[in-house]
Amino acid sequence: MSSTILAIESSCDETSAAIIRDGKVLNNVIATQKIHEQYGGVVPELASRAHQQHIVPVVQQALQQANIIPKDLSAVAFTRGPGLLGALLVGVSFAKSLAYGLGIPLIEVNHMQAHILALFIDNPRPKFPFICLTVSGGHTQLVLVKDYLKMEVIGETQDDAVGEAFDKTAKILGLPYPGGPLIDKYAAQGNPTAFPFPEVAMEGLNFSFSGIKTSFLYFIQKNVQKNPNFIQENLADICASMQQTLVTMLLQKLKRAAKEYKINQIAIAGGVAANSGLRKTLTEVAQKQQWEVYIPAFHYCTDNAGMIAMAAHYKYLAGEFCDQTVSPLPRLHI
User: Fold this and answer.
1) What are the residue boundaries of the structural domains of the chain, listed by start?
2) Which residue, 135, 156, 162, 198, has fewest beta-carbon neighbours within 10 Å?
3) Residue pLDDT, tens place only, 4-24
4) Is 71 helix (H, G, I), strand (E, B) or coil?
5) 4-116+301-318 and 126-295 share one fold
6) Tens digit of each residue's pLDDT (9 = 90 or more) over 240-270
7) Between the CA of residue 41 and those of 6, 37, 45, 55, 138, what are the distances in Å?
8) pTM of this prediction?
């Protein structure tokens, strides 16, 4: 069944559009919102306004790059959730209007499922079943992936996401937003064993990162009282130690999940999957555990419409469409 689908992503602070034709992503246009840097985090109202400004030119650019016109489209796909309500509303409303005007189907996409299906944009691709550690600013999940559209969450954070822990660490250290990539950058120059941080133990396959954030805050406050230049003098070692602690917490649960489910097909996805420390340590663990590991390209880890397009492709093949009554679901679950 031949298809050409326009996909739209607007769950947070990236306005993105992509075209997928018969399962091949042709492009992936992204407009990043810089305005949030001065506030140290995403401001929902400003995010939704920026989406309104960006969505038309981003979609036009995606269509032009693919050398197609709107009447060539078979369907319009969009992120329904999870995400920020105002941001999601812009993408949902645009997709509904365009699909209605063209008389073509609508496809709603779960943002977290799409992160996992980004693994199928390029080769090599994982085989079913596999376990995916999905890590981002808002989510930390272990997902048992049985098929393209059949997934089960087998473990998740009970409080904060690991991406939020990275960003909070950066904020405490006085680093600008977004801080996660900066932690990764400085960590590459530091000693990961310089400062031990207590790991929070959770039963089963669930995670908890609120405790480590509090412990880190007290650690910094205590040492800065003794030495006002403590952060500047030890920045690389602090970042390396904290990053190593968070990565270890993630991989301990991943190893447990792989053992419990007797699966050696392992993947990571989501924005934090771009972290070089996580990628490096996962590769090392995989060699010892005899895992086959799959990681998306960097540009498909952060929020993007390419992953929405890939999810939409499989939903199109399955005939899973929605109608014009669809609305955003900020807390949509897998």
Assistant:
1) 4-116+301-318, 126-295
2) 198
3) 999 999 999 999 999 999 999
4) helix
5) yes
6) 999 999 999 999 999 999 999 999 999 999 9
7) 29, 7, 12, 21, 13
8) 0.95
64 phi and psi angles, rounded to 5 deg:
-65, -45
State how far the Cα of 276 lies from the Cα of 285, in Å rounded to an integer.
Answer: 14
Q: Residue 39's pLDDT is what?
A: 63
CATH fold of 4-116+301-318: Nucleotidyltransferase; domain 5 (3.30.420)
Domain 126-295 adopts which CATH fold?
A: Nucleotidyltransferase; domain 5 (3.30.420)
- Helix runs in the chain, H state only: 44-65, 85-102, 111-117, 162-172, 180-187, 210-226, 230-261, 276-289, 305-318
Q: How many CB atoms sit inside 10 A of residue 150's CB?
A: 11
pLDDT of residue 36 exceeding 70, the answer is no
What is the dihedral angle through the alpha carbons of 237, 291, 127, 331, rounded to the nearest 10 degrees? Answer: -40
Query: Alpha helix locations (H) across 199-304?
Result: 210-226, 230-261, 276-289
Q: What is the mean pLDDT of residues 138-167?
A: 95
Torsion of CA 310, 143, 87, 164, to 10 degrees: -130
Cβ proximity of 241 and 190 under 8 Å: yes
Number of helices and strands in the chain (H, E): 9, 10
Q: What is the mean pLDDT of residues 184-211?
A: 92
* pLDDT > 90 in the chain, percent: 90
